[in-house]
């Protein structure tokens, strides 16, 4: 099948460079093995760290014996909590008001609360010596009772994860306009079920990596780290370390994938920064995969009970959600925000459901802290409401697409304030769903399904009409939910005397392609080629300030900052050019670096204009020196990308295998800057969403140890995706772009699980939990059959 | 202390001599001893393929081989694929054209695995590519653009490929 | 990794001497299991004896009614060898389905058998085809070779040199792999050789590869998937892990065995 890809991306107005599938300018170094990641950087007098981690999910530390380790040649020292005096715990920085905060200790004090928690660290002259010594550090533990799931932690007699915190509750969040019981009375029918978003290991192929380098001569700390938000890390690190922020330089060079966990602040970072300051030597640590699966934050882990009041025509009148989220042993950066705000606000999805009542309780457990992972709360919300819609359709014998259309918020209702607290800015949900139906050949699929059923084959079709919000802002509103970051992004645009330009951005690419997309945006404003523009990021000494890359915000907020700053520089260039051309600035046209008057013959080059600007020659004094502008773009509100996804699966009733045969995605992220890179983002998100639906699970064993090898999708585990877009520009930023980095991860899980349930509905299967492992699916089929025979 | 070994490797055309501990992996020798930073480490079990290099023309995970085992071998990494004048190898060029890389961390290994495929099967179909590259994980791309790039380099990119409209040609 | 000494003997004799004389030597046959094990510090050999230079152990020969495969032959060679594909296509397919190309370039048949991982593929072929395992000391029958999970009949200083497979009348290997690792959750090799009919199962048993005699008897009477559809292996002997519990594996053994019978050529 030939996907009608990208055919609607041109619907919105775009520029000479934006809207085009420009190939990435950053590719060359990666293709030739010259990417520069943190582990590639080795400094003079380099020390190497090896962390000693708890093998227990909960235990008292009795003794740390370092004697044998210290005897290993090349070992500088073995350090534990008492060596880090003056170091605070790693603080979270999105704390829902009213939360009980337990931050991650840099190194454990007395008690360890999850497998993989740092207990001590060896520093040595070589990585081998550090590891050899690490194997000889002998820690004696007294194991304590454990609790691993949120629902267990919230039981009355659950043991306490933190001794001084009864009930293990980190926070409780309630929202919605109430009235569920009345809605139920009116609707006459209730559908209730439970669902679970399993815990996931984010698994960027590059793990975390740090090189902390304190220079006693300048008393500055240069901190190399594989990070998504360098300025935010600088602030958090400076605070916990008690180090002056202006003396702290965070450099995040090439980063090998982020997906959320690389925006958090970690115990290892704090420990190594402290030790570099103490020893006055650079200290490097590169996370091993076994450390990554145990100590880098996980995603999801959310158990839900949902009830909906529904009429016979499929219209949903009320929704009641009661859910329990697992935050792990300590609060990571956004630990209480992601499972509450990012879930509850989107509980009603793209549907006009008059009454809602949402309660989310977050619990501490003896597990790795849970934090933002691609989608960060919105996948949990979308999974719930989209499972609801297919369930309603199946129970009532309605078509799931039609059921959705009966419940959609309509375009003329936009902007639409959901009673749960979010505002949908734009959306033509029926249009997008119709395109997905068309691309899927929906009617044909239903016939195929019917034919297959006659031959004993089980095909299923599942839907998902997710929404989310992206481009986080504004700061004033963020304070009320305890989000201690700004809601803006910075850009500096500088046109040099030779007519080439530099863009500095507070966003940070870890694969998204900012170097290309931001150059496209600036090029359209400045009238020069993108190849003449270099985008720099990831160095807090170089970039004025930044919030960083998460929440699919780089293009809508960071890109808008570039557009605004470049626009101001362009305006000044036009004024200078107008002076040189002796015409009005409004009459000046620019293309490919040449300025000309609309109605005149003369031209001036961008070099001439830039030379004038930086020398003051050929230019009125009042125009002022320089071609440089800084913008802190601060959106008033957030954008609401959305999409319609359709999955076709076949289930093997003998083995329980679920084969994903087709995946059709139509996403609406507003205006698209680069359709090729946009598609790359959609594909990557889909791979992770499909991974969650079919394969992935952190897979704790009975001792609370995560699986060493989570089933990350491989080439032969994914189908060819059929992607497309509709374009409804957002009014929340000057680009009209909404962001789509997380779309696939949000949209895919419910579409696939819905499809599997659709395939097996006639066998009596009513619910399936992710991941859809063959064993789990076969068990559901058998249980359904047994139930049937009982009845 | 175990005895160290002197080994000789030809890396991307250059003869290199170095001394290694017997336990040193080929990936460590390349990265730490010889400064060849293209191949990366992404796991401990050999499952991710980020360290894939060509050893005497065959794709090998360099974290699953001791440096001592490679003594005398010819090693090719992503840095050795381009022509001497810097012209990208057609496979590298295809990766660029098809946006087959995002963060770039898996890319050097991915290129080596794909080179191995094209040597043994110059005209692969999509399934061949997906099978041959299954030992290399990518968490960014969802693989489709990589598949397209490899098929394109082999001249077997069919109508099922992801057409790019609005291209800036 | 702990430290060890490394040896690359030029002859089998030298290799045997090294194994005999070193404290705790291990054979490095391809390393695709051993090296990750060492990296995790799960083993602490004093010496590694690398068989990589012993070219005489890497060969595939077809003679008479048999195929002889040298112990150090990599999976990739077995997968593409013309004689194997002609006389033992089931074995070529098995080799092609191991791991991924990089693993198949380094991993060897002898290494796989000596390791006897409960979810490895080759043990099923060797047992079902009633292959002969030649070592530096003797010839071992397949039935005598596998002694439980990660255990074999091999002595400490004994090296596998060659495996001799008969030409089967018909055979097939069907694997239900873990989708990510591609290790067998259940793999069933069925074969009819001049010595009889055998059904060998890997991936499922707590004691590693095993034969299902009841299926063999049923197939001897009636070679058809239906003939074994009612035969279940005992749940209590099955492995249980994240990907599938014992009951599921027991169920799969029958399903996959039926598919193997249907696929046998």
From TrEMBL, chain A:
The source's domain of life comes to Bacteria
Return the SUPFAM superfamilies for the record. Answer: CO dehydrogenase molybdoprotein N-domain-like, Molybdenum cofactor-binding domain
Keywords from the named record = Molybdenum, Oxidoreductase
Which regions span the lipid bilayer?
Answer: none
Keyword match tRNA-binding: no
Domain Aldehyde oxidase/xanthine dehydrogenase a/b hammerhead, residue spans? 32-145
Among InterPro entries, the record links this protein to: Ald_Oxase/Xan_DH_a/b, Ald_Oxase/Xan_DH_a/b_sf, Ald_Oxase/xanthine_DH-like, AldOxase/xan_DH_MoCoBD1, AldOxase/xan_DH_MoCoBD2, AldOxase/xan_DH_Mopterin-bd_sf
| Molecular-function GO term, any one | iron ion binding
Instruction: Determine if Cell wall biogenesis/degradation is one of this entry's keywords.
Output: no
Region annotation (Disordered) ranges: 1-21
Q: Polar residues: which segments have biased composition?
A: 1-11
UniProt xrefs under PANTHER family: ALDEHYDE OXIDASE 1-RELATED, XANTHINE DEHYDROGENASE
Its name, as the record gives it, is Putative quinoline 2-oxidoreductase, large subunit
The source organism is Tepidicaulis marinus
Give the lineage: Bacteria, Pseudomonadati, Pseudomonadota, Alphaproteobacteria, Hyphomicrobiales
Automatic annotation (TrEMBL), chain B:
Give the source's domain of life in one word: Bacteria
Q: Which InterPro entries match?
A: 2Fe-2S-bd, 2Fe-2S-bd_dom_sf, 2Fe-2S_ferredoxin-like_sf, 2Fe-2S_ferredoxin-type, 2Fe2S_fd_BS, Beta-grasp_dom_sf, Diverse_Oxidoreductases
Which residue ranges does the record assign to the 2Fe-2S ferredoxin-type domain?
A: 5-81
Molecular function GO labels: 2 iron, 2 sulfur cluster binding; metal ion binding; oxidoreductase activity
**SUPFAM superfamilies, from UniProt?**
2Fe-2S ferredoxin-like, CO dehydrogenase ISP C-domain like
What CDD domains does UniProt report for this protein, alphabetically? Answer: fer2 (cd00207)
Q: Does the keyword Oxidoreductase apply?
A: yes
Q: Which key words are in the record? A: 2Fe-2S, Iron, Iron-sulfur, Metal-binding, Oxidoreductase
Q: Which Gene3D superfamilies match?
A: 3.10.20.30, [2Fe-2S]-binding domain (1.10.150.120)
What Pfam families does the record tag this protein with? Fer2 (PF00111), Fer2_2 (PF01799)
Which residues does UniProt call coiled coil?
none
Protein name (database record): (2Fe-2S)-binding protein
UniProtKB/TrEMBL annotation, chain C:
Give this protein's Gene Ontology molecular function annotations: FAD binding; oxidoreductase activity
**Which sequence ranges are marked TM in the entry?**
none
- InterPro entries reported for this sequence: CO_DH_flav_C, CO_DH_flav_C_dom_sf, Diverse_Substr_Oxidored, FAD-bd_PCMH, FAD-bd_PCMH-like_sf, FAD-bd_PCMH_sub1, FAD-bd_PCMH_sub2, Mopterin_DH_FAD-bd
Q: Which SUPFAM superfamilies match?
A: CO dehydrogenase flavoprotein C-terminal domain-like (SSF55447), FAD-binding/transporter-associated domain-like (SSF56176)
Q: Keywords in UniProt for this one? A: FAD, Flavoprotein, Oxidoreductase
Q: Where is the signal peptide?
A: none
The FAD-binding PCMH-type domain, residue ranges = 1-170
Question: Pfam family example for this protein?
Answer: FAD_binding_5
Q: What is this protein called?
A: Molybdopterin dehydrogenase FAD-binding
């Amino acid at each position: 099948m030939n996907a009608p890809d990208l055919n609607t991306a041109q619907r919105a107005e775009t520029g000479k460079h934006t809207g085009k599938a420009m190939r990435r300018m950053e590719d060359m170094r990666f293709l030739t093995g010259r990417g520069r990641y943190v582990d590639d950087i080795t400094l003079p007098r380099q020390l190497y760290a090896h962390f000693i981690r708890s093998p227990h999910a909960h235990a008292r530390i009795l003794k740390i014996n370092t004697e044998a380790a210290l005897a290993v040649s090349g070992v500088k020292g073995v350090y534990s909590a008492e060596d880090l005096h003056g170091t605070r715990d790693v603080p979270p920085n999105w704390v829902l008001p009213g939360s009980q905060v337990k931050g991650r200790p840099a190194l454990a004090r007395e008690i360890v609360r999850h497998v993989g928690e740092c207990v001590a660290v060896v520093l040595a002259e070589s990585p081998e010596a550090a590891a050899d010594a690490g194997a000889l550090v002998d820690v004696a533990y007294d194991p304590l009772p454990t609790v691993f799931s949120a629902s267990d932690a919230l039981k009355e007699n659950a043991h306490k994860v933190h001794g001084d915190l009864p009930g293990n509750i980190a926070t409780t969040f309630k929202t919605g306009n109430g009235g569920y019981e009345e809605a139920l009375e009116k609707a006459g029918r209730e559908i209730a079920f439970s669902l679970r978003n399993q815990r996931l290991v984010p698994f960027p192929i590059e793990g975390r990596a740090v090189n902390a380098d304190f220079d006693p001569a300048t008393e500055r700390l240069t901190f190399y780290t594989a990070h998504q938000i360098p300025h935010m890390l600088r602030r958090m690190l400076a605070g916990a370390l008690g180090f002056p922020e202006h003396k702290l330089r965070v450099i995040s060079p090439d980063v090998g994938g982020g997906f959320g966990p690389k925006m958090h602040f970690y115990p290892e970072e704090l420990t190594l920064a402290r030790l570099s300051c103490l020893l006055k030597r650079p200290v490097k640590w590169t996370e091993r995969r076994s450390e990554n699966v145990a100590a880098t934050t996980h995603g999801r882990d959310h158990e839900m009970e949902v009830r909906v009041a529904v009429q016979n025509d499929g219209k949903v009148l009320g929704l009641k959600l009661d859910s329990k989220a697992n935050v792990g042993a300590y609060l990571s950066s956004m630990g209480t925000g992601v499972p509450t705000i990012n879930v509850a606000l989107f509980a009603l999805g793209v549907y006009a459901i008059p009454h809602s009542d949402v309660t989310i309780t977050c619990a501490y457990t003896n597990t790795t802290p849970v934090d933002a992972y691609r989608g960060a709360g919105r996948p949990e919300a979308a999974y719930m409401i989209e499972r609801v819609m297919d369930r309603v359709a199946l129970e009532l014998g309605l078509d799931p697409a039609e059921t959705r259309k009966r419940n959609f918020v309509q375009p003329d209702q936009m902007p639409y304030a959901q009673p749960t607290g979010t505002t949908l800015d734009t959306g033509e949900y029926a249009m997008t769903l119709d395109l997905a139906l068309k691309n899927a050949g929906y009617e044909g699929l239903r016939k195929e399904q019917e034919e297959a059923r006659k031959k004993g084959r089980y095909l299923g079709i599942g839907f998902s009409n997710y929404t989310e919000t992206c481009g986080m802002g504004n700061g004033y509103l963020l304070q009320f939910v305890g989000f201690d970051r700004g809601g803006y992004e910075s850009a500096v645009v500088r046109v040099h005397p030779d007519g080439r330009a530099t863009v500095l951005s507070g966003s940070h690419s870890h694969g998204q392609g900012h170097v290309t997309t931001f150059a496209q945006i600036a090029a359209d404003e400045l009238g020069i080629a993108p190849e003449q523009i270099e985008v720099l990021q990831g160095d807090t000494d170089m970039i004025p300030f930044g919030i960083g890359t998460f929440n699919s915000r780089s293009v809508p907020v960071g890109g808008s900052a570039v557009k605004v700053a470049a626009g101001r520089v362009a305006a000044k260039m036009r004024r200078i050019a107008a002076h040189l051309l002796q015409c009005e600035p409004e009459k000046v046209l620019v293309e490919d670096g040449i300025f000309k008057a609309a109605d005149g013959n003369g031209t001036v080059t961008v070099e001439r204009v830039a030379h004038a600007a930086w020398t003051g020659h050929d230019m009125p004094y009042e125009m002022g020196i320089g071609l440089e502008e800084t913008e802190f773009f601060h959106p008033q509100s957030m954008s609401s990308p959305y999409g319609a996804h359709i999955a076709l699966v076949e289930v093997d009733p003998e083995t329980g295998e679920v084969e994903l045969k087709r995946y059709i995605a139509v996403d609406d992220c507003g205006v698209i800057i680069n359709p090729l890179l946009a598609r790359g983002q959609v594909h990557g998100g889909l791979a992770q969403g499909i991974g969650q639906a079919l394969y992935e699970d952190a897979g704790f064993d009975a001792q609370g140890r995560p699986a060493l090898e989570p089933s990350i999708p491989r080439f032969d585990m994914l189908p060819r995706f059929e992607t497309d877009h509709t374009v409804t520009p957002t009014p929340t930023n000057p680009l009209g772009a909404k962001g789509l980095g997380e779309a696939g991860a949000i949209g895919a899980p419910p579409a696939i699980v819905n499809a599997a349930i659709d395939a097996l509905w006639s066998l009596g299967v009513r619910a399936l939990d992710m991941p859809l492992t063959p064993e789990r699916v076969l068990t559901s089929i058998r249980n359904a059959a047994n139930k049937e025979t009982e009845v | 202390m175990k005895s160290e070994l002197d080994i000789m490797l030809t890396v991307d055309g250059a003869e290199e001599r170095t001394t290694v501990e017997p336990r040193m992996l080929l990936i460590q020798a390349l990265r730490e001893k010889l400064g060849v930073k293209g191949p990366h480490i992404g796991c401990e079990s050999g499952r991710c393929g980020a360290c894939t290099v060509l050893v005497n023309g065959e794709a090998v995970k360099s974290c699953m081989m001791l440096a001592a085992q490679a003594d005398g071998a010819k090693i090719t990494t992503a840095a050795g694929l381009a022509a001497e004048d810097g012209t990208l190898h057609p496979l590298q060029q295809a990766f660029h054209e098809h946006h087959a890389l995002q963060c770039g961390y898996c890319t050097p290994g991915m290129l080596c695995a794909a080179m191995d495929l094209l040597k043994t099967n110059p005209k692969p179909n999509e399934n061949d590519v997906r099978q041959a590259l299954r030992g290399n994980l990518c968490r960014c791309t969802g693989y489709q653009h990589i598949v397209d790039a490899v098929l394109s380099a082999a001249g077997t990119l069919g109508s099922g490929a992801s057409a790019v409209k609005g291209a800036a040609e | 990794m702990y430290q060890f000494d490394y040896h690359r003997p030029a002859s089998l004799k030298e290799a045997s001497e090294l194994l005999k004389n070193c404290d705790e030597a291990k054979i490095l046959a391809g390393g695709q299991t051993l090296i990750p094990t060492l990296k995790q510090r799960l083993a602490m050999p004093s010496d590694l004896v690398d068989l990589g230079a012993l070219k005489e152990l890497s060969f595939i020969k077809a003679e008479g009614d048999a195929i002889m495969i040298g112990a150090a032959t990599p999976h990739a060679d077995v997968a593409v060898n013309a004689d194997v594909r002609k006389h033992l296509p089931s074995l070529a397919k098995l080799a092609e389905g191991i791991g991924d190309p990089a693993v198949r370039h380094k991993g060897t048949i002898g290494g796989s058998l000596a390791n006897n991982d409960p979810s490895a593929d080759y043990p099923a072929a060797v047992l079902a085809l009633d292959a002969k395992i030649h070592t530096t000391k003797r010839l071992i029958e397949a039935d005598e070779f596998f002694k439980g999970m990660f255990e074999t009949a091999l002595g400490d200083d004994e090296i596998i040199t060659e495996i001799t497979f008969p030409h089967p009348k018909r055979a097939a290997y069907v694997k239900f792999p873990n989708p990510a690792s591609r290790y067998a959750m259940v793999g069933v090799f069925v074969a009819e050789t001049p010595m009889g009919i055998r059904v060998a199962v890997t991936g499922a048993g707590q004691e590693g590869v095993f034969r299902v005699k009841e299926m063999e008897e049923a197939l001897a009477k009636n070679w058809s998937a239906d003939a074994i559809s009612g035969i279940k292996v005992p749940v209590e002997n099955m492995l249980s892990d994240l990907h599938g519990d014992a009951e599921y594996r027991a169920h799969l053994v029958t399903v996959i065995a039926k598919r193997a019978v249907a696929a046998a050529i």
